[in-house]
Amino acid sequence: MSVQRSLFDEVMVPTYNPPEIIPVSGKGSRVWDQEGREYIDFAGGIAVNCLGHCHPDVVEALQEQSQKLWHLSNVMTNEPALNLAKSLTEKTFADRVYFANSGAEANEAAFKLVRRYAIEQHGEDKTKIISFTRAFHGRTFFAVTVGGQEAYSAGFGPRPGNIVHCDFNDIEQFKALIDDDTCAVIMEPIQGEGGIIEADPHFAHEVRKLCDQHKALLVFDEVQTGVGRTGSLYAYESLGVEPDVLTTAKALGAGFPIAAMLTKEHIAACFKAGVHGSTYGGNPLACAVGLKVLDIVSDPKLLEQVTVKSERLKEGLKTIGERYDVFSDVRGKGLLIGAELKPEFHGKARELLNHGLQQGVMCLVAGPNILRLTPSLIIPDKDIDEGLTRLDAAVKCMVSV
């Protein structure tokens, strides 16, 4: 059966508007479409494919588990889930792990946890959640309300209440918002959808201090920054600020759906049996994959190379920017990189993405003005260089229009 892009418009709910190409296979940092055309993958499934496509060790882990056990009801536990949870607690600040299927689900669990903990420990009035403008925490109704982008939460009726937003990195505004009724502060160490904006270390430390003063929990959304993306296993390590709760997804499964919420023992204790749950959370297939991914990515040599590859990619973007006078800034940490278009090219990030596809390179955007790159953490240097060559051609096309 021949499958064409037009079938999407016939059978799919139109929440997306994909391009005409349909990828059918991938290996490492290269992808091929139905016509056999090759693309360098600088998108990585939006920071998901941390080990590229079809990494042999991950494929082996999935195949091995697929011959043993696929699924159990959440009445029972399983070996892969326990092994992955043990590895996550050994490698992070956390004592306890809750498994889900996506970043939005992990965040939903975190938001419910902090509210319940605060109410149990401090009373019914301690429910305020502080988030940040331009933040993104997923697409559930609670998550888009906590997120700081109005476009994602508008048009669905009454929203969950007592959620306020602060400008990112504005400590004076934050001081005016936090009080003893605040149950939690939700923060991305680097805002991804919001434009690849890093948390200022002083700001993050002050937020931590103020959370402690007001007995509020600090939640780090590391759905995009976690599992090696910034050059450390989780971004909080290099930031030097330890959260009370952390959410992780995307790269944890290297393309297989899995997510987790991590927290301390005394906080986890308020999620008693039956309070929250997930049918597929802790699925044996997903957890077997996640354990293999975590083993590979936590290697210090791999994490060191993320920083090296980051500099190679950033320098290439700066060279392209200077050649065509097109980027006002190239920023980010590790292999979470944003190139901001100059004012005369504002609104053209999506156009540049499409030119990239025509030239054989897959990229992302972070809003209308920022090109976002989140390639595999182990992308070979030759693929970085070839991808930059193709991106150069795409930029040339954009500025020539």
UniProtKB/TrEMBL annotation:
Pfam families found in the cross-reference section: Aminotran_3
Keywords: Amino-acid biosynthesis, Aminotransferase, Arginine biosynthesis, Cytoplasm, Pyridoxal phosphate, Transferase
Organism: Bermanella marisrubri
Catalytic class of the enzyme: transferase
GO CC annotations on file: cytoplasm
Protein name per Swiss-Prot or TrEMBL: Acetylornithine aminotransferase
Residues that hold N(2)-acetyl-L-ornithine according to the record: R139, S278
Cofactor(s) required, per the database record: pyridoxal 5'-phosphate
Swiss-Prot/TrEMBL GO biological process terms: L-arginine biosynthetic process
Intracellular or extracellular location(s): Cytoplasm
Reactions performed catalytically: N(2)-acetyl-L-ornithine + 2-oxoglutarate = N-acetyl-L-glutamate 5-semialdehyde + L-glutamate
Domain of life: Bacteria
Gene: argD
Residue numbers binding pyridoxal 5'-phosphate: G103, A104, F136, D221, E222, V223, Q224, T279
Note from the entry: May also have succinyldiaminopimelate aminotransferase activity, thus carrying out the corresponding step in lysine biosynthesis.
Residues found modified as N6-(pyridoxal phosphate)lysine: K250
